Amino acid sequence: MTSQTWNPQSYLAAAGFVPVLGQPVVDLLAPQPGETILDLGCGDGTLTARIAGSGARVIGVDGSPEMVAAARARGLDARVMDGHALHLPEQVDAVFSNAALHWMKRDPAAVVAGVVRHLKPGGRFVGEFGGFGNVAAVTTALLAALAKRGIDGIARHPWYFPTADQYARLLEAAGLRVADISLFPRPTPLPQGMAGWLRTFAGPFVDDLGPAEQAAVQADVEALLRPSLCDAQGRWVADYVRLRFVATA
Ligand code: BEZ
Q1: Whose CA is nearest to atom 7 of ligand 1?
Q2: Residue 2 belongs to some domain of the structure
């Protein structure tokens, strides 16, 4: 499996909705002046900056050097770090995460263990990411387009989309108390259509294919999805399902 690569400029154009739609998670976090908050998977720092605007001190971490550079360019304290191996020299009042935990598939328990290690007693873990059934139609279309070419797409599947029960059990097993957790559909309009979404997010499925084969996979995926995810005006909507939670240490 090739790993996902990120380009902050094209991300903004094709997926600028991600931080916009993350505002309710910031509201749930309710950052306070004087708090120290870790933004796990901070991306280009759009929401990190918003949290910092509340007067909290925010440390952003992300696995992508390109995204961390974009966050630093905003003047944020952002560090390149694998979410599976969190290591800060201090504990924090809260850990926040939007649209990032689904990329940390290798060992979700290790991710939560790192969060717990960094939370002060009574601290909170507030987040949202893709839950069970997220982008199911898109994934199935990708798997079908790859299978047609003799490629095992399941072996390349890069995302972790747990049910609410599954994730609640993971949080509790790590010693957190789950105050709230819910799974809900959030159909999401795509500003650059399915092609833009695939270019931005589906790299792990296709990056090792040649340009012609990538274009053919994209065409097949669009053809499979058009009847269900594209309206008569050509507007694409992705079948997002979110898992949102608040847990405390
Ligand atoms: C999401 O935000 O749910 C998501 C984004 C890209 C790929 C998979 C899921």
Answers
A1: 201
A2: no
